[in-house]
Amino acid sequence: MTEHAKYLIPVIYIEEKEIIAKIHAMTKTLVASILENEKPVYVDFETQERIPKDSALWYKEVIKTNGECLSINDDRRV
């Protein structure tokens, strides 16, 4: 499984590659949908300036820590 899927799917053991592929595809679709519907930046159309929203700053921290900030026991959660 890819790195992003580790944090979105409960820990389970699956041997069937077909099921793993379907879960991975669904996870990718979920992440893409969230990013598409909840745009991480605001665009000031007059100046064309991109202003990061709080969600963009949160996602930046998730990437920087390789998802460690998502842990329930981590004090660095944003």
UniProtKB/TrEMBL annotation:
Molecular function (Gene Ontology), one example: beta-glucosidase activity
EC number, UniProt record: 3.2.1.21
Enzyme class name: hydrolase
SUPFAM superfamilies xref list: (Trans)glycosidases
Keyword tags: Glycosidase, Hydrolase
GO terms, biological process: carbohydrate metabolic process
Protein name listed in UniProt: Thermostable beta-glucosidase B
Lineage: Bacteria, Bacillati, Bacillota, Clostridia, Lachnospirales
